Amino acid sequence: MLTDLKATAIIMTLGELVAAEESLTRLLEVRVSAPLAYRLAKVAKAVRAETKHFYEQRDDYIRELGEPVPADQATGGVGAMRVKPDLVEEFLKRIAELSAVQAELDVRPLTLADLPEISGSDLLRLGSLVTDEPIGAPCVK
Q: How far is CA 85 from the centre of its chain?
């Protein structure tokens, strides 16, 4: 059952949001009620707004630390780049730092009760985008 409560911010790292994107995209493909479809779309839009920064920065790192891929080895098309072998460690360090950056999404998490059937692996990837408690429920210790 969907509740009509004010948004509660979700705090996740960029790495967690990148990991959640594929699972969230799968959920968007499932036919659900209009209110749930709207909520899923809002969460997806918020996630994509944050991960956009991750992908842009990652691409900047590749341009900075990379080299063009020879045409005979390119699988990404003309203009494909790869990180120079001697700079892979630096690239991975930067990606790890970028992945650890916290992002705040101004949407409330989905609840398990909101979701259609979902795999355990997708649920793990979604992380804090999903809660097992109704939003606004008292915290019981």
A: 28
Tell which phi-psi region holds residue 11, choosing left (phi > 0), alpha (psi between -120 and 50) or beta.
beta
pTM for this predicted structure: 0.81
Write down the pLDDT at residue 7.
Answer: 46
Annotated domain spans of the chain: 10-129
Instruction: For CA atoms 53, 54, 60, 64, give the dihedral sign.
Output: positive
pLDDT in tens, 104-129: 999 999 999 888 889 999 999 999 99
Residue 110 has a CB neighbour count (10 Å cut-off) of: 23
Question: How far apart are the C-alpha atoms of 20 and 10, rounded to whole Å?
Answer: 13
Residue 130 structure tokens:
């999903």
